[in-house]
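Good morning N.,

You mentioned wanting to compare the apo and holo forms, so I went ahead and generated the holo version with cobalamin. This is what I fed in:
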Amino acid sequence: MKLYEQLKLRSQEAGCAGFGVTGAEPFDAVADTIERRRAAGLAGKLQFTYKQPETATAVTHSFAWARSIVVVSWSYLPEAGSPGEPSPGVGRIARFATEDHYRGLREALASLQALVVGAGWRAEVLVDDDRLVDRAAAVRAGVAWWGKSSLVLDPRHGPWLLLGSLVTDADLPADEPMVRDCGACDACMPACPTGAIVAPGVLDASLCLAHWMQVGGPIPVELRAPMGDRVYGCDDCLDVCPPGFKRLTDVAVGPGRVDLLELLATDDKTLLEKYSHFYVPRRRPRFLRRNAIVALANSIAQARQVGAVSSPATADAQAVLAGFLGDPDDLYRSHAAWAIGRIGGEQAVPLLQHQLGRERVDSVIVEIEAALAVVGSE
Ligand code: B12
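and this is what came out, ligand included:
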């Protein structure tokens, strides 16, 4: 059997959803797109492939010997389950991160790598790496098509796919790109809670909630309420994608639900271990807690709107937030002030006023005053 057929068979045995091969020539049009989007401010604070587009779009920059790129896709449903209905004190994690769903993909690629190396060729695995634009490679290798959400999809799994590649000096036959598109469907565009899909296939990362949960610094105030109960990632543009509906029917509720008070009480070391598969900026758990503070307030505020939250639950949340309002870290203080204002109720004004009397950081004073204004307008 030829190496191509052996690799395809091995990928199927390893549980990959899709397999394809493309040449190692650069993705020149993608390099231009990245530069243009960065210049237009659509990259937000992202680094990744935006850091060095010329490297991300030409594997020969990193591997001068590269001849072919073997691309595989990995479906993470139904295992990733569903976080279910919103509930006070409960946060949600997007399905791609309910556990390390990249593990199976990496194992499959390691197995393909062993096959290629065993046949006498060189091979490097690239998954979510700054040295390859995974989606462009998947499209050119015929594994998936470009969706209007900017995700790539296949007919069986919709957008619920992770991607990985093997770069090799073996000269493998290339597959044809998948000739499909979303047709008239643009369900993902209005489904985005912040309008981040600004044109078909164009994501403004500076509006994408998944982006803000993965970068450092404060979350823009106007995006905190739309963040809802999310702690990490956002699935709204995937949830409404019709080719993915079949995969969503078998999921169990449970994975992806997080007890927010428990998360906020967890020490740094345990948090980093438990969520080691998250991209946490500079491995600093304060950014994960920042997300949880916002999600906690939203989970209570949303439930209160439909009369589904008890006073003790609100009091417990406000007590935990009061602790963060007095924390030495001003990132916590500013987000806790916002969160206390968002939850409101009797305890909010005294808590905020107490901190206002002793606060010295201008940006936090602004947040406390804004929170007091929100509570005052209730
Ligand atoms: C940076 C990044 C992000 C950023 C920015 C995303 C973005 N759209 O650029 C943030 C943090 C927001 C993010 C979010 C998510 N990400 Co991400 N992310 C990446 C990363 C590291 C680089 C992506 C990149 O290069 N973007 C640069 C821009 C310019 O590229 P682009 O958006 O793909 O633009 C192309 C399209 O516009 C297309 N195009 C051009 N013309 C046209 C015309 C039409 C009509 C269409 C439809 C398309 C089209 O060409 C452009 C150039 O290639 C990759 C891993 C990697 N190394 O590739 C993972 C990756 C893209 N992410 C992934 C996932 C799973 C997600 C999330 C679903 C996670 C979640 N649930 O929260 C969300 C989805 C959000 C979304 N709608 O894209 C998967 C996507 C798998 C898939 N099925 O597509 C990847 C491939 C990781 C992996 N190895 O599996 N991500």
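The two ends are 72 Å apart (CA to CA).

Happy to go through it together on a call whenever suits you.

Best,
F.
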